[in-house]
Design goal:
235 residues; alpha+beta; Beta-Lactamase; Arc Repressor Mutant, subunit A; 2 domains; 16% strand
Length: 235
């Protein structure tokens, strides 16, 4: 476990709100959330972020080896999974006496994680998650720590939801740009074929399609070859 300077919760919330999605990718944002939570939530020794997409869990960020999410995934149950699935908060005051998740609690205690707190992160309709806080002492999280963790998770969930939307829109924009580029090269190729063969646009596209089928290549690739061939100096 590495020592970090504590951070005032209001300062942490403000820092989360200042993150510009155009400047960071979602992995960087997840790591930032984990690091800020570790500095902000009283009692936190290590922090991780679980994401649950189509019922498939993964640890998207973590601050240290004390985070024991993977042990829960192996068993198919545990507080971080339940918090992610239900968007609720689950506390384990003492892993040494915890009875709800047999096997995992014993493993956590042996690893040095003697209490934990998992807070649900509702990110998107198909993506949920949990902010998982682990401590090296039992009963590490009092009511104030739980309240801060829940507020922090609320800010983090908004940031992740916005990042998911931003990434989706950016991907859509990229696909649209690619489609426009594909359309442009196909139109260029059609124009070249129309000029060479004195045919209609429909006939030119039919020729491109036939070349595509015969060569087992995409129409866009065939069109690019036609355009590139037309640009070469004629001998």
């Amino acid at each position: 476990m590495t020592h970090v300077e504590p951070m005032d919760p209001h300062e942490a919330f403000a820092e989360l709100g200042r993150i510009r999605l155009a400047d960071v990718d979602i992995d960087t944002l997840l790591d930032k959330i984990a690091q800020l939570a570790k500095r902000t939530i009283p009692g936190a020794s290590e922090v991780s972020v679980t994401l649950l997409h189509d019922n498939k869990p993964q640890t998207a960020a973590f601050t240290g080896a004390l985070a024991l999410d993977e042990k829960q995934y192996e068993r198919g149950y545990g507080p971080c999974l339940q918090a992610a699935e239900s968007s609720s908060s689950l506390m384990v005051p003492d892993t040494g006496s915890e009875q709800r998740w047999p096997g995992w609690a014993e493993t956590a205690a042996k690893a040095g994680a003697h209490s934990s707190l998992s807070v649900g992160l509702p990110v998107h309709e198909h993506v949920t998650g949990a902010l998982n806080i682990y401590a090296t002492t039992p009963n590490a999280f009092d009511d104030d720590a739980i309240a801060i963790a829940q507020t922090f998770a609320g800010f983090a969930a908004v940031g992740l939801a916005n990042a998911h939307l931003y990434e989706t829109q950016a991907t859509l924009a990229g696909h649209m740009q690619k489609a426009m580029e594909n359309r442009a090269v196909i139109e260029q190729a059609k124009g070249i074929i129309m000029g060479e063969r004195r045919c209609t646009p429909e006939q030119a596209f039919a020729i491109l399609s036939k070349l595509s089928q015969d060569s087992n290549r995409k129409v866009r690739d065939v069109a690019s070859a036609v355009v590139e061939n037309a640009r070469r100096p004629q001998r």
